Amino acid sequence: MTELPTGVFQDIVDDLDVAIFFTDQSGTLMYINEQASLLVRIAPSAARGRSIDSLLPSDVVGLLAEEGVEAIKSGRIRRIRKKPFKLPWRGMCFFDIRAIPYRRTIGGPWVAYLLLDITAQERREMASERARVNAEAEAVARQAFLARMSHEIRTPMNGILGMTELALQSNPAGEMEEYLGYIKGAADTLLCIINDVLDFAKVESGRMELEELPINLKTYLAETIALLSPSAEEKGIDLRGEVGDGVPRFITGDPTRIRQILMNLIGNAVKFTREGVILVHLEVEQAPPDNNKENLILVGSVADTGIGIEPEKLQDLFEPFTQNDASVSREFGGTGLGLAICRSLARLMGGDIDAESRPGKGSTFKFRIKVRTTLNVPDGIEVKSDSITVQQYRW
After folding, report:
1. SS3 of residue 34 by DSSP
2. Which end of the chain is more exposed for a tag (fewer CB within 10 A), N or C?
3. pLDDT tens digit sequence for 255-308
4. Are 272 and 306 in contact (CB under 8 A)?
5. CA 218 to chain centre
6. Global pTM value
7. Contacts by 234-239 with C-beta closer than 8 Å and gap 24+?
8. Which residues of 60-72 are buried (b: 16+ CB within 10 A; e: fewer)?
9. What span, in angstroms and rounded, lies between the C-alpha atoms of 387 and 123?
10. Is residue 334's pLDDT more than 60?
């Protein structure tokens, strides 16, 4: 190439989304394309023969000149990424820059400066990063606030419950006993809400720690069902539990968090079932191939004959602070945190939880978490009789 771009080549150069400046080694402009013309706001024909420093700020020209000299000296393309420039007519801009040397057979060398405007992309990335940082800071602040407030509220609530219980034990007469019963019921409900908020804050902040202890699944499930049987019996609901065949006598996991999942799921089933049956089933299966037979998957399901859930509501069911609809919240109460906590705990234990439901026909919630088989029970672990469990809790 001994002349400026012409014909088809010039059309191609003008169609590029990169600003191109051809200069000689002294910085005199030989040619600019259409994109460069838009950048410096001067026609290509008017730019020819002018010095590049008459069109661009001095700091930009200084950088281009340095890169041009190095490009000519080395005979290689010079590259600069994400270079910020402040243009008086546009403000702060960002460019990817190339300085391409060209040695002509006649006359001195030229340099082609290619300036790719990445300002819009860079601003999007900066805005996205700011949004991410702000969101993380907001999440940390929210979790810290929830945890702190939950602790601050729970302490006096325990005091209210304790004093109310003492007052009830003093055999109050007439209306006083009734009033104290209302106070205790309301305080119990409020404490459940506070505990939900505290657990949710712990999980979200990553401060929830898991234990690994031996668990006798049959005894464990029977005890869990026993805690909720009075509520089910009061509504005439048949609450049943079963453990699948082939389940090891003991598994190793976090009994507190597993029970929390079961209590939430069974409690919800009792709450949203007016009549019928609730069946709780536990079984274990071999974990995905890892050559370790001690690794198991605990699969738990809670099936009810309750009010059911609309299909379009299932996808949001495990989001915090959500319930099926406003009427559910008014009739049954609750924070909308229970299922969100269940999913967070299940995922913390290497699994997940999902649901199937038909309106008016009932729902089935199933969770899967990672556990291990326990071959030797450590000393000091109390093992209850399975036969007693079977007789007492309808196995």
Report:
1. helix
2. N
3. 989 998 998 899 889 988 989 999 999 998 877 666 566 789 999 999 999 988
4. yes
5. 34
6. 0.54
7. 235/270, 235/273, 235/274, 235/275, 236/275, 237/270, 237/273, 237/275, 237/276, 237/277, 237/278, 238/276, 238/277, 238/278, 239/266, 239/270, 239/277, 239/278, 239/280
8. bbebbbebbeebb
9. 69
10. no
